[in-house]
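Contributing: when you submit paired examples, paste them exactly as shown. First protein:
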Amino acid sequence: MFDYKLLAALAAVVEQTSFERAAQVLGLSQSAVSQRIKLLEARVGQPVLVRATPPVPTDIGRRLLNHVQQVRLLERDLQGQVPALDEQGMPERLRIALNADSLGTWWGGAVSEFCIREQLLLDHVVEDQDVGLKRMRAGEVAACLCASERPLAGARSVLLGAMRYRALASPGFMARHFPDGFEPALLPRTPALVFGPDDYLQHRFLASMGLAEGFLHHLCPSSEGFNRLAKAGMGWGMVPELQVEDALAEGSLVEILVGHPVDVPLYWHHWRNGGQLLERLTRHLCEGAERWLVPL
C-alpha cells in the first residue's frame, strides 16, 4: 500500500518547484520533506526526482504523480458522499496547463461560474498550445488545453473548438515594409514577433503561402507584450482575434492579408479516472466553449 504522506511530499515538490516552498505548503520543515522523498525512493527502489532547479520527476515519479492527482479527485467525490471525512473543509485545487492566449482571452469567462459554484481553486500552468500535453504526461497537472488531439493512455480528449489567429501589424509597419502594397515574398525579410521557441503560428502562416520557414523575428514571451510590440510597429505576428477586436476597430492594428486566418484547434484532455469534478468541468467547457471558439 502507498503511504500518501510520501506521495503528497512528491507532489508538493514538483508543483511548488522547490523543497522549500513544498515545506511551507505542507507545514513541515524542509528536512522533513527531503526525508519523505528519500523514504519514498527507498520503498520504490529508485529515484522519483531529479535534484535539479527546479526538481523534475523521473519516469516512476511521473507515474506516481499521475496516481496522486487522480486519488485527490476521487477523494473529493467520496467527501461529497461522506461529509464527515472532509475535516478541513478546504476548497479543491486543480492544476491545469493551457496556452497563454486562452488564459488572456476566453478562459476566465468560461470557468469563473464553475469555480464559484464548485468552490474550486485553479493553479494555471502556462505552456504553448503545441506542447501543453507534456505537463500532463509528467503528472504535474490534472488536465490540459492544447492543440494535440491524441490523448495519453488513461486519459480522454475532446475538441472544444479553435482559436482564430490573424496576421497583424501596425499601419506604420505596413507602410514602411510594404509601401506598394503587401507582397508575400517580402514577408520573410520583415521582422516578425514570436512568442517563444514552441510558437509555430508564424511558420504556419508563411507555409500557407508557400514560403520557406526561415524569417527574421523578435522573441516576446508575453501575450500583452506581444500586442504592444505589434502596435509599436516592431513586427508582424499572429494574434488571437478575441484579443484585438478593439485594436482592429480603431485601426491601431491591421490585417496583413485579409481573409487569411489560422485556426488552431483546442482539445481538452483529462484523466479517465479523474472523478466527478473533472467530468463536470469537462461538460461545462463543452457546453460553453462555442461562445468564444470557432467551430471546426
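Second protein:
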Amino acid sequence: MPFNRPTLTELREKSRTQLKSELRQTGALLRYSNMRVLADADAGLAHLHYGYLDYIAQQATPFNATDEWLAGWAALKSVYQIAANPASTPSYQFIGIADSTLEKGAVLRRGDGYCYRLIEDVTIGENGKGIGKLTAILPDIIDAPTGGGIDGNADSGTALTLDISLPGIDASGVMVEPATGGADIETQESLRARMLLAYQTPPQGGSDKDYEQWALAVPGITRCWTKRRLMGAGTVGVYIMCDGNDETNHGFPVGTDGLSPRDEWGVQKATGDQGRVADYIYPRAPVTALVYVCSPVAKTVDFKISGISHVGSDITAAIAAAIDSVFFHEGTPTGNGKIFLSDLNRAIGDIAGTAGFILVTPSSNIDLGVGELPVRGEVEYT
C-alpha cells in the first residue's frame, strides 16, 4: 500500500510523546519548556528529511522527474530538450539608391524592440529596391526565460528600422513574406512526452513512430502523423502542425510541401516549416524512402446549436474551447479519421449552463479525408 507521509503536526505530537516516555515522573510539557522546543525541533528536522525523500522518489522515475533529472532520463534515450529557434523571412524589402550595398550582419529593429539580422549582402537594384533574408536575434535567456523565439514570428508587411543609418539606404522597410519558424525553448511537459514515447517505442528502422519522433524533435513542431505510400510505392507522408508557434496561420505550418532540398530525387521540394522537418528526417530515414513532409488542409466545420441562445459570452467561449479540444485530440489527416458526434455532445454537455442544448449542425459524425484536419468555423446559436 502507498506510504502516507506524516504531517509536521503529527511529527511534533509523536516527538513530544516519545520524549515524555523517556523521562521519569513528568507531566505535560509546558508551552515554552526546553523539552517541548527540543521535541518540535527534532520533528522539524524529520519533516525536512521526509520532504527530501519525497523529492528523491519523484526523480527516481522518468514519469515524474523534473528539471535536470528529467533531462538526464531523456538523455538515456538520446532525447534532448529543444532549444529556442529563431524566426526568419526570405524576403525583406529595402529601399534606396541604385547600386547601394548593405552588408550582412546589419541589425533591424521592430516597433516593439525585437531585433533581426541580415544574413547576406543586399544590393539595391535599378528600381530602387533590394530583397534580403533576415533571421531573428534571440533575446538573452535572462530577459526571456522561454527563449523568445516565438516572438520573432511576424506577418508580411511588418515594418523594421535599421539600427544604424547607412548612406543610400532608407532606414525603414517591410517584410514581403512573413517571418516564420520561431519557437520557444521546449517545455518540460513536451520533453517528457517525447521521452516517454522513446521509452515506449524503441527505434524500428523506419516505423510510423520513428517518423513521428523525428518530426517532433524539430523546433516548433507540436503534432505529426505518418501516412504510408502517400505519393505511391516507396513514399512516406509526414503531416505536421505547429500549434501555438504561428498564431497567424492557426497552427498550420508555413511553407510548401515536398521532399527535403537535400534529396536529389524529384522536383517537389519542401520549404519553410515543412523544409526544416524534411531536412531533419532526410539523414535519419531509410535510404529507400522518399519522405514528403506536408501541411494538413483545414476542413472548416460550422456549428448550429439551439436551446441555449440566452447564454453569455463566458459559456459560448467555453463551448468553443470544448469543440477545439475535441478537434485537437481526435482529428487526424491520415484518411481514417472521424470526429464522433457523441464526443462533441459530451464535451459541450460537460459545460455548466448548457443544459437543454441541441446540436443541430453537424447532424452526423464528421469524416476526415487524407490530409484533412478539422477546424471550428462559425458557431450559431438559435
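If you have annotations for the second protein, write them as plain sentences, like these:
The radius of gyration is 29 Å.
Helices lie at 8-22, 34-59, 67-75, 188-200, 208-216, 272-281, 313-330, 341-349.
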